[in-house]
Specification:
The complex is a heterodimer of chains A (901) and B (378).
Chain A lengths: L1 E8 L8 E4 L5 E5 L6 H13 L7 H6 L8 E9 L2 E9 L4 E6 L2 E5 H12 L12 H6 E2 L12 H15 L5 H18 L11 H43 L2 H73 L2 H46 L2 H27 L4 H24 L1 E6 L8 E3 L2 E3 L2 E6 L3 E5 L3 E5 L3 H25 L4 H27 L6 H26 L8 H63 L5 H32 L3 H44 L2 H42 L1 H19 L4 E4 L5 E5 L6 E2 L5 H21 L6 E4 L7 H15 L4 E5 L11 E2 L1 E4 L9
Parallel strand pairs in A: 3-19, 3-20, 8-18, 18-19
Antiparallel strand pairs in A: 1-2, 1-4, 2-21, 4-5, 5-6, 6-7, 9-12, 10-11, 10-13, 13-14, 15-16, 16-17
Helix pairs in contact in A: 5-19, 5-20, 6-18, 7-17, 7-18, 8-15, 8-16, 8-17, 9-14, 9-15, 10-13, 10-14, 11-12, 19-20, 19-21, 20-21
Chain B lengths: L1 E5 L15 H21 L4 E4 L11 H12 L5 E4 L12 H8 L5 E3 L6 E4 L2 E6 L13 H4 L7 E7 L1 E2 L11 E2 L3 H4 L4 E5 L5 E4 L2 E3 L15 E6 L8 E6 L4 E9 L2 H12 L7 E11 L1 H17 L2 E11 L3 H7 L3 H14 L6 H28 L1
Parallel strand pairs in B: 1-2, 2-3, 3-4, 6-7, 7-10, 8-9, 10-12, 15-16, 16-17
Antiparallel strand pairs in B: 1-13, 5-6, 11-12, 13-14
Helix pairs in contact in B: 1-2, 6-7, 7-10, 8-10, 9-10
The chains are: A alpha+beta (901), B alpha/beta (378).
């Protein structure tokens, strides 16, 4: 096939009719800027060749010119096997197709679509897709030139056909590849790439079917087993029920129960009668006890009367000696009390004497301190006197430290003022001749040997009577100095007034005195402290000592007067007298203790006598009261009669009770005992329960049987057995189908692996034709290089610089693209050589080639162009200027003339 | 006394292996009841004795339960005497109680307890129903002790295996081989054995009226029994009742021509549309023969009711022509020879050899298909 003309309308940017002109054999180049519509032409050519004219898919819709309601119209003119063809297709709007050969229409519509494919050797597959065969690998769209060609099935067939033709049929590569493709297709329907069952594939369906049926079968089998179990259980229950409901057994149990109930009733009646006799016996016994008690009480009463009478006599005998004993004790108490009184009086007198002696002893002790008190009083009086003098002197001396400091300041200021005046004043030197006798005075002071001084004040010098010289300083300076000195003199005067002095020396003298007085004051203060006094304690202390001395003297005098004594005894005399008094008091205390004990003893004796007497009298009263009561009940006159009467009644009761007891024993011997009665009750209960249990068991069995029957009926109605058998067969069928599928997959895999293995072993043989066609193109660009080919026409590497090879994936993008283009050129050459020329279209390829390499690629393209049509679309006008070949142009509107067909 | 002896109807048996034809086979078993009924009417028989296994399972579906009853009910002049078998034992509230609840037609008598039953004046039926699937003891023992008036024809009805009969019985349920003699039976009607079989002149297995498996009997039948008088030898006449013929055919194939011959013979077989054929082939066949075999298979499947083709023992041996058909050389020829070597390799498992063989056949088929496509394309 060789394209000769392309015309489009309503396609992309070409709303009006546009034509690609200049197409011819060999290399064709359409060089135009971006968005010039190069790729649009390319896509329009593909659509015209490979799409049905009725198609409305995205490929076609994307071709239409936006905004214009025009059909997409494409007209191609091409030469093929010596004939000229023109195919025109309009898409979307009023779709139509027409095919002309050598100027004559040979097909229209659908026929036109398919006739073109037949002419070009294309397979239209299932009618929806089109395998574009060699066109797919030789027409390289924008951005696709980097990819190694991966031929579609039809393209591979085309290539393989070429190879087959070259290497001979014995290789069988194409047939093997087709079978491999079919096997892969078959396997892909049932397993995934990893060998697992493919969802919704036959194998997966078979597995699913087995699992589903097995699950259903197991469930049904479980239910059937349960039904079987229920049937067994039901049979067992029915058998049990039959045994339980045996009439003979029931009759026997009823008879036993009735017999047991009769025996129980009889026993219960006997027991009731026995209870009556026992009650009567108990009543008789109670009456007997009552009469016995009366008799015993009467006898006891008589005995008590006798006993109480004896007791009264006895108590009265015991009371008699108690009065004498009390009298003796009272006498002893009186004697003891008198002695105690006497001793108490003597003690009182001795205590008075002892108190006097102690007072005297205290006075003696105080007298020992009187000298000390006198001395302290004198010392205090002396101290008071000195302190008063010091206080008076300090009060009169007003030259305080501040006053002295003020004086020093005034003197210093006067000195300074005088010095300043003298420094600025005239100086007068007076010299007196030693021989002169004329008195010379200066301001009234006689000068002996002369003098020199500054004149700060008017100074009068008199020389005898000879002269009176007054020297005055300048008035201005003197006035200021005078004023300042006057001020200082005033302050000094005031200071003197404050201090009460008249001169500096007096002031300084008084200041020295005050300092001395202040030192004395501090000494007095220290002395006061040493005397143990505070500031205000001195007069009080003095008064206190005076009062104490006066009190001491008064005490001495008073005691001397009171005791008619001339002198106060000594302390030793007093001590002796006190010791004597102490001894006496001790002796009295001992004596008194003895009397106290005697009195206390007798008091206790009297208490005991009183207590005993009270007790005896109380007992006597109680005995007499009881005696009177008993005598009231049992007077002595009636005693014998009453006792005899009660004895008779008691004996009659004994006889009555004996009769009742005999009757009771007689009945008791005949009636069943409690244990027997209980046994009979237990038997009745047991037999009643047994019958009840039988009834209950039957009821339970009936319920369980009914329940089971219901369940069985339901399960049986489901046809479980039939279902299980059916499912078992279905499971077996499914398992067989699964085995078949597994076997089929394994068989296909084995076949695929075997064929593939053989195919690979012949790879080099199969690749030889492509390698032969590739080599010239490869040498144009990569001299002496060798390409390494893999499966399916893939390029695995290149050997350029020696024995080592480079992996294709590791090559630069530019080199990869160049090799990919060269492989396509080789494939094109191989196909063309077989007589199936297909144009090689490169849309914007070789973008990463450098100047040197692209020149070589141009050589390769031109080499390919010698045998087939090459169409290069590029926007790199300058770079591709060196490609040579035919320059294509896009013309539109009036420039278009009808294409030659 | 004339009656029909039948057994092993096994109504409700599934035939899933037959796919859509299952219904037909199930229906055929019901149809056999009508055939028996008509045969009874035709031969003036008033009693049909069913020796167990009326149903295939102890818990059939409700519909399955009532289907045979409805068919038996049609024949009002015939009384059907039924005992339970090992497939349908009588258990409390089980299958037969369900049947009772459905309502047993008047002309059907269920004998679910042992004990003599007078079915005609001077004719006593001695049923021995099964109460479980497998009985250890001989349920017909009681018949010996059961008395009957002098001159009474005594007919035993039981289901089980004759002791020492050498049958691959389906369950235990032993029956003494001389039970008829011991118990003074004029005839002992047995069920369980699906093939018509006399044990002795007075003891017979009726076989199934409609076969359900291969290796049973080719066609179903029942027995027409005539007992002229008590003690007289019974006259037993088989009556064909089966609709389908279960046939088996084993063939040794050595060449493709053998297939053609086999095809010719099988196509001459009578009653093909009601024949269920198990065709077991063994021997060796060239790859090209596989196509022929598929062709034969297709034609037999079209002619027969069902074909069960067994080719496990039929190996594929590629001829030189087969290999050349695959290719004269190159990749595919090499692959074919590799697979052939594997198929002959004794060192690998039989399964692997079989797989290699099938792969070779597959390669052959794909090659020939590809070649024909190529022809078509050309």
């Amino acid at each position: 096939m060789r394209l000769t003309s392309v015309e489009i309308e309503g396609v992309g940017r070409f709303g009006t009719a546009s034509r690609l002109t200049g197409l011819g054999a060999g290399v064709n180049i359409l060089s135009a800027g971006n968005e010039a519509g190069k790729s649009t032409f390319f896509r329009a050519i593909r659509a015209c060749l490979f799409e049905r004219h009725t198609t409305r898919n995205d490929t076609i819709r994307n071709l239409s010119t936006s905004g214009l309601s025009l059909p997409v119209t494409v007209t191609l003119a091409f030469e093929h096997h010596g004939s000229s063809y023109k195919i025109t297709k309009s898409f979307l709007k009023s779709p139509q197709a027409s095919l002309h050969r050598d100027g004559r229409e040979i097909a229209r519509g659908r026929d036109a679509d398919e006739s073109v494919w037949e002419i070009l050797g294309l397979s239209h597959g299932n009618g929806r897709t089109l395998d574009d065969a060699a066109f797919g690998i030789l027409w390289v769209g924008q951005g696709k030139s980097f990819d190694l060609p991966q031929p579609s099935d039809a393209a591979a067939s085309t290539l393989n056909a070429a190879i087959q033709q070259e290497v001979g049929t014995l290789v069988g590569g194409e047939r093997a590849r087709r079978i491999l493709a079919n096997l892969d297709g078959d396997l892909a329907n049932v397993i995934t790439d990893t060998g697992k069952p493919k969802a919704r594939g036959a194998l997966s369906e078979a597995i699913g079917q087995v699992e589903r049926l097995e699950s259903e079968r197991a469930a049904a089998q479980r239910r059937l087993d349960e039904l079987d179990h229920q049937l067994d259980e039901l049979e067992g229950l029915r058998s049990e029920r039959k045994k339980l409901s045996d009439p003979e057994l029931t009759r026997q149990m009823m008879e036993n129960l009735r017999a047991a109930q009769g025996a129980l009733k009889e026993g219960e009646a006997a027991a009731t009668a026995l209870k009556q006799y026992m009650s009567e016996e108990q009543h008789a016994f109670a009456v007997l006890e009552q009469h016995q008690k009366k008799l015993e009480e009467s006898i006891a009463c008589a005995e008590r009367i006798d006993r109480d009478r004896a007791r009264c006599v006895e108590i009265q005998e015991l009371l008699k000696p108690l009065d004498e004993q009390e009298r003796q004790s009272r006498n002893a108490i009186a004697d003891g009390s008198a002695e105690i009184t006497r001793l108490d009086q003597a003690t009182e007198q001795r205590e008075q004497r002892e108190r006097l002696l102690k007072r005297m002893s205290a006075i003696v002790s105080r007298l020992a301190t009187r000298d000390g008190l006198v001395q302290r009083l004198n010392a205090l009086q002396d101290f008071e006197s000195r302190q008063n003098l010091n206080d008076a002197a300090l009060k009169s001396n007003r030259v305080s430290e501040k006053v002295a400091a003020t004086l020093d300041e005034l003197e210093r200021d006067l000195g300074n003022l005088t010095a300043r005046l003298e420094a600025g004043a005239a100086r007068i030197d007076v010299e007196i001749a030693t021989s002169s006798e004329v008195p010379v005075t200066m301001d009234g002071t006689k000068l002996e040997i002369g003098t020199a001084r500054a004149i700060v004040d008017p100074t009068t010098i008199t020389v005898g009577d000879i002269a009176r010289i007054t020297v005055s300083p300048p008035a201005a300076s003197r006035e200021l100095a005078t004023r300042q000195r006057s001020e200082l003199a005033d302050r000094l005067g005031k200071l003197f007034d404050t201090a009460g002095v008249s001169s500096n020396a007096e002031l300084r003298h008084l200041r020295a005195l005050r300092v001395s007085l202040e030192l004395d004051a501090r000494g007095l203060k220290a002395e006061k402290i040493s005397l143990g006094l505070q500031d205000s304690d001195l007069p009080a202390e003095t008064a206190r000592i005076r009062a104490e001395l006066e009190d001491l003297n008064a005490s001495v005098e008073r005691i001397k007067s009171d005791q008619s004594m001339t002198h106060i005894p000594s302390s030793s005399e007093i001590e002796n007298q006190l010791n004597e008094l102490t001894d006496l008091r001790h002796a009295d205390r001992l004596a008194r203790g003895g009397f106290d004990n005697t009195v206390e003893h007798h008091n206790r004796v009297i208490g005991e006598i009183s207590s005993k007497r009270g007790e005896l009298r109380g007992t006597l009263a109680e005995v007499e009261r009881q005696l009177n009561l008993d005598l009231a009940r049992l007077p002595d006159a009636e005693r014998d009669r009453i006792l005899t009467e009660f004895g008779e009644i008691f004996r009659r009761s004994q006889l009555e009770h004996g009769g009742k007891a005999a009757l009771r024993e007689q009945r008791q011997a005949k009636a069943p005992d409690a244990e027997e009665l209980q046994r009979r009750e237990s038997r009745v209960s047991r037999l009643t329960a047994a019958l009840g249990n039988q009834k209950s068991s039957l009821e339970k069995l009936d319920i369980r049987i009914a329940n089971l029957e219901g369940q069985i009926q339901i399960a049986g109605g489901d046809g479980l057995g039939e279902l299980v058998l059916s499912l078992e067969e279905q499971c077996a069928i499914a398992a067989r189908e699964l085995d078949r599928q597994n076997h089929r997959v394994a068989t296909l895999q084995l076949l695929r692996d075997t064929v593939d293995s053989c195919y690979r072993s012949r790879r080099e043989q199969l690749n030889a034709p492509l390698r032969r066609h590739l080599q010239p193109f490869l040498s144009d660009v990569f001299p002496k290089a060798e390409i390494q080919l893999g499966d399916g026409f893939s390029v695995t590497g290149i050997n350029r610089h020696g024995p080592g090879s480079e992996q294709f994936d590791h090559l630069s993008d530019g080199t990869q693209e160049q090799i990919a283009v060269l492989v396509r050129l080789a494939m094109g050459a191989m196909i063309a050589e077989r007589g199936q020329e297909v144009p090689i279209v490169l849309d914007d390829a070789l973008v990463f080639s450098d100047d040197d390499r692209i020149e070589k690629m141009f050589d390769a393209l031109n080499r390919a162009g010698k045998h087939q049509q090459i169409i290069v679309l590029t926007c790199r006008t300058r770079t591709f200027a060196a490609l040579g070949g035919r320059q294509l142009t896009i013309s539109s509107g009036a420039e278009i003339s009808p294409p030659n067909t | 006394m004339r009656f029909i002896h039948t057994a092993d109807w096994q109504i409700g048996k599934p035939f899933k292996y037959f796919g859509e034809k299952e219904t037909i086979l199930r229906h055929a078993r019901l149809k056999a009841i009508e055939t028996i009924g008509h045969a009874a009417e035709g031969h003036g028989v008033r009693h049909v004795l069913l020796a167990g296994d009326m149903y295939d399972t102890e818990s059939p579906a409700e519909k399955t339960l009532s289907e045979p009853l409805a068919r038996m009910q049609q024949f009002t002049g015939v009384t059907w005497h039924v005992i339970s078998g090992n497939h349908d034992p009588h258990r409390a509230n089980g299958l037969w109680d369900r049947v009772r609840r459905l309502g047993v037609p008047a002309n059907i008598r269920l004998h679910l307890d042992e004990g003599p039953v007078d079915i005609e004046p001077g004719v006593a039926l001695m049923p021995a129903p099964l109460r479980r699937k497998s009985e250890v003891k001989d349920l017909t023992e009681w018949m010996a002790a059961a008395s009957s008036p002098a001159g009474t024809i005594r007919i035993g009805l039981a289901h089980g295996s004759i002791t020492g009969f050498g049958s691959a019985n389906e369950a235990g349920n032993p029956i003494a081989p001389d039970r008829a003699q011991q118990a003074g039976l004029d005839y002992l009607a047995l069920g369980d054995w699906h093939r018509t079989m006399p044990v002795n002149p007075r003891t017979w297995y009726a076989g199934t009226p409609e076969p359900d498996r291969f290796a049973s009997q080719e066609n179903g039948q029942v027995l027409l029994v005539d007992i002229p008088a008590q003690g007289a030898a019974p006259q037993v006449t088989p009556i064909s009742t089966g609709q389908f013929h279960w046939r088996m055919c084993d063939e040794n194939i050595t060449c493709t021509d053998g297939l053609a011959d086999l095809g010719a013979r099988l196509r001459a077989m009578p009653e093909q549309s009601s024949t269920i054929l198990r065709l077991s082939l063994k021997g060796a066949l060239p790859l090209s023969g596989r196509t022929e075999l598929e062709r034969l298979k297709g034609s037999l499947e079209a002619a027969l009711f069902h074909l069960d083709l067994q080719t496990v023992d039929l190996v594929s041996r590629p001829s030189l022509a087969d290999l050349e058909t695959i290719d004269f050389g190159g990749v595919l020829r090499e692959a074919a020879e590799t697979l052939q070597a594997m198929a002959d390799d004794p060192a690998i498992t039989a399964q692997e050899r079989h797989r290699a063989e099938d792969a070779l056949v597959q390669l052959y088929l794909m090659s020939t298909a590809a070649a024909s496509d190529g022809v078509k394309e050309a």
